[in-house]
Please model this.
Amino acid sequence: MIKGLVFVLNRLIYALVIFIMLLTIPNISLNFLEKKINMPSAAEITDDKKDRIIEKATEYEKPDKIEKTNITEPELIKVFNSKTNEVIVIEPEEYLKGVVASEMPADFNIEALKAQSVTARTYLLYRLKKYPEGHPDHMGAPVCSGIHCQVWASKDDLIASHEDGWYEEYWAKIEEAVNSTSGQILTYEGKIIEPLFHSTSGGRTENSEDVFSTAVPYLRSVESPYESEAPKLHDSVNMTVDEFIRKIKSVYENLDISPDNLDEKIQLGEVSEGGKIKTIYVDNTEITGREMRSLFNLNSTDFNFIQSGNEIEIVTNGYGHGVGMSQWGADGMADKGFDYKEILKHYFTDIKIVSMK
Ligand SMILES: [Zn+2]
Model:
């Protein structure tokens, strides 16, 4: 009798455990070919969330004086010019003007341009310290002028590549952004940080380990709610279902996928804290979001598929890897009244803004 009761109780507990497990099972089996995944985009972030960002930002310390460090800025630096394959020698602050003007539209808010100036200077110092004899890909110079490092162009090249009147309208603003933040860099626990940035996060930035291999304490996922002006906040790539299948099969030839079974064969795997796709399963084969991004030339790994008849649309949110500072998010914050220090402290977790000797 007691044995029988224990058996029944055990079965009940077992059923309860299974029930709880079912409730907490992750979205692995969610078929997202038909059902759009519900991920927030910048445009969809609520006023409540925006308020929280504002509250958080006002908590930031606002030092009147920027702390001085023992780090020194060299008088001259070497830059490998990727266009001419020559190493040039230039003053760092001059180099920074050419970086800021290349990496951010000059009509951005001055506070966003200042944030980019500090970021560019930090990146330069980080590279100088890491590669004092030059980067292995361009020996003799710790930085190059291409996207491999941070983009730099000479003043003449900038004038030539912009519309008439650009120099007269914007150069003083670029100079002000660099000069007014002169010598300022970002550190974490006293060390110069690697200040990654990207164009548009799509509503939330990424944890570094979800994009690159290492977890970096100052490259954490944070909200980025003011990106509504970003031209590539929402975008899409369209093709026929046959083309879509052909492309996937060009890399994974043995997959059993056809126009009739796509909706069953594609399933969502893991999603990052930043709302981007880490993995999907196609016919039970795991494919990373990054592979899909490069295969279909997508703006980001925050994507969805929408199939209608023989057409497939891959809809994307954001532009770039999503780690560190969102440039359009920085401009949006600046337009909301945040200064460059608040912007930098928002996108780079627990960093300090310090001044070189
Ligand atoms: Zn480089």
The radius of gyration is 24 Å. The chain is about 35% helix and 20% strand.
